[in-house]
Amino acid sequence: MDAMKMNNESSSRLLKTPPRTCRRNASRLTSSSPSLRTPTKTPASMRRNSTMKPRMSPSPSMLRTPSSFTPTTTPSSYGGDRFIPSRRRMNIDLCRRALLTEDSPDENKNTSYSGANEGEKSPQPPADTPIQKEYKRRMLSSLCNVPLDVLNEKSEPRGLLSFGVEKKRKTSSSVNIRLENPYTHDTLRVLDQFENIDEPSSAVKPSDVVNRRIPSQPSRILDAPDLVDDYYLNLISWSKDNILAVALAHCVYLWNADTGEIQHLATIEGNDDYVTSVQWCTMNGHSKYIAIGTNSNTVQLWDSQATKRVRTLYGHSGRVASIAWNQHWLTSGGRDSLILQHDVRSANHLVSTYKAHEQEVCGLKWNDDGSTLASGGNENFLCIWDAKMSSTRSQRRVNRFSEVAPRMLLQQHKAAVKALDWCPFHRGILASGGGTADRTIKLWNSNSGAMLNSLDTGSQVCSIIWSPHQRELCSSHGFSENQLILWKYGTGSKLTKVKELTGHTSRVLSTACSPDGSTVVSAAGDESLRFWDIFGAPPSRRSSVLPMGEMTFGMPAIR
């Protein structure tokens, strides 16, 4: 009986203050079904087992009175329980691809691989290599406008339906960017979406994009029999009169690019003598003169129109492998590690001697204004010289010639430095290339000596030449690829590979650019000359073609 009283008291406490919903449901049940009312008498089975210990006593949590719960009647500020998704970070292209692609590989594990006969164990498809995986990852990133950091190594998006605060990123609308071709859709997409492809500062900019067609095949091929296959020699030069000079063994030939005529200019006498370098004069009104370096330690000056030798310059004790003109000054570098400055107007032509190299001088290049000379040697040195440090005529009357020291001596290259050229649109920027043990193209600030960029090309760098009207340069290479590479010069002195040009079967020893700046000729050890139209038409020829968008489709207008 005591247990019965305790149970009745606990049940009365549970039913003392029920919630509003419970009272409403209880009233409905009592009014609709009388059989479900609380019995007034205790059943006999319960009286029989009243002395037994109850199986489960109510927990303290059940004995709490839910009087503290008071349902609110004011409308919710969140709009009730309605779920409104945020699609700001949802990629529609990626979702559409997921819907249109086939079933996942897990669902197709038991399906037979194509090509397997029925009843045989189906072979597994070949696994993708790391290069193929990265290719698929980048293709998906490009096609679906997904940053690379969102995709994992299996090309699966990380957190496709995740919600959160979207990271702010720069778009083309926040920066005033002028595109070279506004109809290039890929350029617009890259500017907007791919600001962080490999690293935060590697955004693709319009200046890094080439919007013209670059032919893969040469426009002309000429045979060059007996072309000396020597890395240190400079055997071709293209004049302002559009005449190409080519040194073949002990002879020099001239090829007129306008008419296609070939003229024999000179033959170097001597059994062991041969031509080691050629260079046209760059001074206005004197472009008919050409300097020829020989293996007999001399430099010969020839008049191409009269086909005769004007004079011979002495001073070296080794072969002359490199020559550079600076107005009426002729600079020559030899195997004796000396750089000699000649005044071709004077009888006493030797002006000064530049001493810094320890082995053969194989590269020489004056900048456009003739104030700075760059030289490269076989001992891996790159030297910067100032023209104002050369001896004047009054000093030469006292001393036969003066010795000049370099303003800078750069030793970052690990092989011979032959490839040299000055940037035509950034004053003071010099490009240099190293040999087989180095294989790099380096960009320098000649004023401070700082190295702006160093790029491993994978093969020996034989020559470098800048485009006179494009922000591009072309490099020729030897072992082991024997190719030409066109590079785009971008912001921050970044070099982006645009195209590789193949065809030579031996190392490409030298290159030269046409006077209009559109064609590059390459001379290789396979005894051939190839002409590549890679730099595009000069500005004067491009101005006669209307831009796209004026309903002319790039054709000249008919007036």
How does this structure look, described?
The chain is an alpha+beta fold. Helices cover 13% and strands 29% of the residues. The protein has 8 helices and 29 strands. The strands form 7 sheets. Strands 10-11-12-13-17 form a 5-stranded mixed β-sheet. A 4-stranded antiparallel β-sheet has the order 1-29-28-27, with no helix packed on it. Strands 2-3-4-5 form a 4-stranded antiparallel β-sheet, with no helix packed on it. The protein is elongated, with a radius of gyration of 41 Å. The C terminus is likely disordered.
Give a count of the beta strands, DSSP E runs of length 2 or more: 29
What percent of residues adopt helix (DSSP H or I)? 10-25%
Query: Any low-confidence stretches, pLDDT <50, length ≥5?
Result: 11-15, 24-40, 44-69, 104-116, 160-204, 392-399, 542-559
Q: What fraction of residues sit in β-strands?
A: 25-35%
What is the topology, as strand order, of the major beta sheet?
10-11-12-13-17
Q: Give a quick account of the main beta sheet: strands, pairing sense, barrel closure.
A: 5 strands, mixed
Contiguous helical run count: 8
> Whole-number radius of gyration?
41 Å
Described by the principal axes of the CA atoms, the overall outline is elongated
N-to-C CA distance:
120 Å
- Provide mean pLDDT, rounded: 77
Estimated structural class: alpha+beta
